[in-house]
Protein: YjjG family noncanonical pyrimidine nucleotidase
Organism: Flavobacterium suzhouense
Amino acid sequence: MKITNKRAVFFDLDHTLWDFEKNSALAFQVIFEELDIKVSHQEFNKHYSPINAKYWKLYRDGEITQQELRYGRLKDTFLLIDFTADDILLERISQQYIRLLPENNNLFEGAVEVLDYLKPKYSLHIITNGPDEVQERKLKNANIGHYFDTITNSELAGCKKPHAGIFEYALKAANVDRKESIMIGDCIEADVQGAIDCGMEAIFFNEHNLEAPASIMQINHLLEIKNIL
């Protein structure tokens, strides 16, 4: 099904274009070697991913601060694998992680090809809950920043997805009507339902083929966007 009434495409960044899991694992591998942490980074990452997702939901919902997000996800993961990490070590790991994470630039398969396809036809934009400085470095190091006319983050908008305010801020920055816009992201709650509640259409990037309502447009690979837009 081709959608023909759009002028602007909004993307989430992490887990949608930028391969967070792969880049995060690489960052932890370097950190554990540099700090001589005697833990398998593969074992750590297996537990870190779902814990990180839980903490991001708490952060989106306004139940914890960014600082609590950064430390809590590390502390809980180390507790789960029975490794003692004191506050000093957690501080060092957290700082190293924020520094190293954007240095990796793995994108999902098809990301650059689909951006090349979309760029001549639409204005392209980012809406992210991630912190400004980190997201800017990710876009720059992955060499995709030039595709996007605007980058809206929760710090600029003063609220996080799925709050309508961040979508309204992004639409205003892009100077485009919500009916002429579509959002693409990996989180049904934050990206898809958030956009729909704001009056936009949305596409769920369902990389892991999770169960989703039949009413939601979804893709399993980024190149499927070419069949829709």
The mean pLDDT is 96.
